[in-house]
Design brief:
The protein has helices at about 1-20, 25-35, 40-50, 55-65, 75-95, 105-120, 125-130, 130-140, 140-155, 160-175, 175-195, 205-230, 230-240, 245-260. By secondary structure, the chain is mainly alpha-helical. Helix 2 (about 25-35) packs across helix 4 (about 55-65). The two termini are about 25 Å apart.
Length: about 260
Amino acid sequence: ILLVINILCISLFLMLGYFNRFASDDFAYYFRVRDMGIWHAFIFAYKTWNTRWASIIFMNLMMKIFTPESSLLLYYILILGMFFISVYRMLRSLFIYNFMEISPVITANYSMLLISCFFLCTFGIDDSWFWMNASTIYILPIIFLCLGTSYILDIKNNFLTHLMLNISFFIAGGGNEPLAILAIIFFGTNFITQSINKQITTFNNPERKHLHKLRAALLILILSFSVNFFCPGLAVRQGFLPSYNVNHIVASILYTCLLLSKS
């Protein structure tokens, strides 16, 4: 039953991806990449409007592959494949970390089920998933956050593990500021909690190595978030937008929580 559900969700997702095309701001980024190239188009966006450097670089690469009349099916195969690999690795590492014997087939089904649930529960599926401009900002960082978490939980402690951990969290932190803030709070509190754990007494303790990876992830997230937060484009963008209103922000958060609880 679980396999059939996953196949149906994959079919739905890829069917929607097949009939999808560029929309709205995608055209502006496409023509800018065409006229200026990937790197200069990124610099222009970074200095004048969109500070999410990781998302913009990835989107510019996609703009070199696809055209306004192209079906975006291959793009959504890529996104779904990356999401599946990251969630599968995260669950697999979590099971091994907790000494649970779960077969790869079952883990794969669980992974696809989680992705399907996340997809169906997303606010504004049309924008968040099927608008390329938005999907690189909202979906891509979550993929790399899951991938980075898998390397934190991974029992391996070699150079490749640390390299992929750093790359994953650097991209996750540079693609979406709110997600980066939440990740910094989560991993920061987790790091503090584990640091004061009296059971970690020896340097060779496996938990100590896990703590080192957690600290590296936290530092990389802060660094990547800072690249976004202290860029010139943020000030330019704020000049076009109304000033922050704390009451409005609190009311929006409460309203969102109400919608979530209602759902």
